[in-house]
Amino acid sequence: MRVDIVSIFPDYLAPLRLSLIGKARDQGLLDVRVHDLRDFTHDRHRTVDDSPYGGGAGMVMRAEPWGEAIDALLQSGEGVPHLLVPGPGGTPFTQAMARELTAETWLAFACGRYEGIDERFVEDAAERMPVTVVSLGDYVLGGGEVAVLAVIEAVARLLPGVIGNADSLVEESHEDGLLEYPVYTKPASWRGHEVPPVLLSGNHGAIARWRHEQRLSRTAARRPDLLHASAGMLPGDLAPMLATPADSPELLVLQRACWVPEGRSADSWEIPPLVETLDEVVTSLGTWRTWVVRSGGRLVGSVRGRSVPDDATVWETGRLMVAPDVQGRGIGRSLLGYAESAAPEGTRRFWINTGARSERNLRAYRKAGYRVVPGEGRFPGTVDLVKAAPARS
Q1: Which of 25, 19, 18, 22 has the alpha carbon at shortest distance from 1?
Q2: Are the C-beta atoms of residues 60 and 116 closer than 8 Å to each other?
Q3: 305, 316 in Cβ contact below 8 A?
Q4: Which of 32, 178, 349, 374 is most buried when burial is the number of CB atoms within 10 A of its CB?
Q5: What are phi and psi of 182, to 5 degrees?
Q6: How far is 177 from 327, CA to CA, in rounded Å?
C-alpha cells in the first residue's frame, strides 16, 4: 500500500519510522511518503493560510497550495488515491472503516491546521478521487497529524504480513463489535491480585465462555452503545430452538443474505445455500438437526449439525449463519459452540467446511480450535477444517 501525507509539519510524522509501521516500511509492505505543503507555495513567506471570508476568529488554509499538492500526487503515480481529510466534522473512524481501507492500494492524507482547509479544496478533490472527511472522535485537535498517525497505524497493522501472528487480530477490541476481554500473564499472584482461576484450569471451553462473558460485561459497562440486544445471548442461555418447517422461509432468506459475500469471494453463485429451493430447505430439516435463534420475534441466527452418515465418530457442523445487521456480536461463535455441544457420545472429531477464500470464516474457525485439512474440501472452491472433540467423562 502506498500512503502520501501532506502537512506543514512533516517532522510530526517521524513516528511512522518506528515499531510495526517502521518495520512494514523496511519490508516494502508500506510505502509512506511525507510532503511539505509549503513546497507548493509561491511567495517568499511560503504562506498557506489567510483570514476567513465572512469574518471570525482564526485563519483558514488556502485552497491553492492544497490543490497543487494533490495535482503533484496525481502526476506521481498511476490511478488515484483515496483522500482522507481529518476533521472533527467528519465520519467517525472505526475498526470497520480501518478494515475497509485495507482494500485500497493508495491512500493520501491532507493534514489541516488552524480553522481548517478552504472547503473548495475538498469539493475539487472529490471531482477527481474518492474523498472521506474522517474524525477520531468528538473533540478538536490542533491539526490532522495526530489523527493521521492513528489512522495509518490502525489500517497498516491489518495488512497481510505486518502483524506476525494474524490470529491475534481476531478478538481485539471492536474487531467484532465488542471490547476485548481482560488479559493476564505471569506471575499468577501479584500484590494480592490473583489471575482468575478459570484461566489456570486448562479447560479451553470454560476459558472461551469466560472470555466471551467478560467481553459482553465490559462492553455493557464501558460502551453500552455498542451492545445489541442479541449480543447478550451467552453460550449457556442462547436458548436455540429446533427448527420446524414453519421456519423454512426465513431460513431460506437468511442463508441467501449470508452467502452473498461467499459468492463474491468465490466468484461463483452456484453455491448450495444460494441455489436451494424452499422445498430443499424443508427436506434438509429431516436429515439435520437445525437450530434457530430469534430476537424480538425475528430469526437472526441458525446452525445445523449431524453425525456424518458413514462415520458416526465425526460430527459435522454446517450452515452457521447470522443476520448481516447483527454480525460481529458473538452470536456465531456461541452458535458454533452450541452445535458442538450437541454432538453425541462417541464423537471424536468435529468437521466443518467453508470457502477457501473466506478469510473471516477461516480466522474465526482457527480461533475456535479448527485446523485446515490440506487440499480441496468436499465441495469445489472450499476447504475442510477439523478439530478433536473433547473427551467426555
Answers
A1: 25
A2: yes
A3: yes
A4: 178
A5: -65, 145
A6: 8
Q: Considering the entire predicted model, what is its pTM?
A: 0.57
CA 297 to chain centroid, in Å, comes to 28
Residue type, 9: F
Question: In terms of DSSP bridges, do strands 349-355 and 382-388 run parallel, antiparallel, or are they unpaired?
Answer: antiparallel
For the four alpha carbons of 148, 149, 155 and 161, in that order, the dihedral sign comes to positive
The values of phi and psi at residue 312, to 5°, are -70, -10
Per-residue pLDDT of the chain (393 residues; tens, 9 = 90+): 999 999 999 999 999 999 999 999 999 999 999 999 999 999 999 999 999 999 888 999 999 999 999 999 999 988 999 999 999 989 999 988 998 999 999 999 999 999 899 999 999 999 999 999 999 998 899 999 999 999 999 999 999 888 765 555 544 545 556 788 899 999 999 999 999 999 999 998 888 888 878 887 887 788 877 765 444 444 444 578 899 999 999 999 999 999 988 888 778 888 889 999 999 999 999 999 999 988 767 888 999 999 999 999 999 999 999 998 877 777 888 899 889 999 999 999 999 999 888 888 898 899 889 999 999 888 888 999 999 998 765
Q: Judging by beta carbons within 10 Å of its beta carbon (0-12, 13-18, 19+), is residue 192 exposed, middle or buried?
A: exposed
Query: Whose grid coordinates read 517532522?
Result: 11
Amino acid code (one letter) for 146: V
Pairing of strands 382-388, 371-372: antiparallel
The Cα 362–Cα 372 span in angstroms is 8
Cell numbers of 181, please? 476481554
